[in-house]
Amino acid sequence: MPRFAKRIAVLLALFTGLLSAAPAGAAVTITFYSHDFHMFHGVTTEVPHGFALLSGTTEAGEAVQANLGFSATSFYVAALFHPIEGALDAMPLPAGYVEEATYQFAFPLSDAQYRAVMATADKWRTAPQPSYDFYNRNCVTFIRDIAVSAGLSVSYATKFIHDPKAFLKDVAVRNAAFLADHTVPAAPLASDAQSPPD
């Protein structure tokens, strides 16, 4: 066999080995939702919310199930006057919360995109307190950062700052060509049916 053909054969064997090493159909799906109200310790408040679910398996075989959202941790009225403590949404979300939300769009992430999304969430998780600012650091700006980390184009217009549904609809329009080729069915967490912890 000529030297060139041997090299091609070796490369093909390596490539085939890499493909077989990854789990079949491995992908983490990110699904974006908006909510017309937010459940806070079992109390319904009239505060819209934007969040994302991650579900699937990475190329390395890591199982992923997570919800990503950002909220104030205390009574929201105080947020109208000054920044207050904020935190990522608890896992799992309250029973029925996803079912009551409005699905916006979903697509698979590469492992690099998944790591970027989780790194962004970690920056928000570890931000100095008070980290929630109703006027410029809330669930919309959080989900905007998550969308950017996932590779989407977004608007930074202040008109969306308190309207996660309108913001995500705008993201869908801005990324219509990409989403037309990559949209997949929503992949909600298996734990959605669980009751929230006491």
List keywords for this structure.
198 residues, two-stranded antiparallel ribbon, alpha+beta, 7 strands, five-stranded antiparallel sheet
Kindly describe this structure.
- By secondary structure, the chain is α+β, with helices and mostly antiparallel strands.
- It has one domain.
- Helices cover 34% and strands 23% of the residues.
- The chain has helices at 3-21, 97-100, 111-125, 139-149, 164-174, 176-182, and strands at residues 27-35, 38-40, 43-45, 49-57, 63-72, 86-88, 102-109.
- The strands form two sheets. The protein has a five-stranded antiparallel β-sheet with strand order 6-5-4-1-7.
- The longest helix is centred in the N-terminal third of the chain and has 19 residues, at 3-21.
What value does the Rg take, in angstroms? 20 Å
What's the number of helices? Answer: 6
Order of helix and strand elements from N to C terminus: HEEEEEEHEHHHH
- In helices, the fraction of residues equals 25-40%
Question: Can you tell me the overall shape?
Answer: globular
What is the average per-residue confidence, as pLDDT, rounded to a whole number? 82
Strand content: 15-25%
Quick one: biggest sheet? 5 strands, antiparallel
First-last Cα distance: 69 Å
How many β-strand runs?
Answer: 7
Determine the structural class based on helices, strands and strand pairing.
Answer: alpha+beta
Unreliable parts: 4-24, 191-198
Count of separate structural domains? 1
For this entry, what is the oligomeric state of its chains?
single chain
In order across it, which strands form the biggest sheet? 6-5-4-1-7
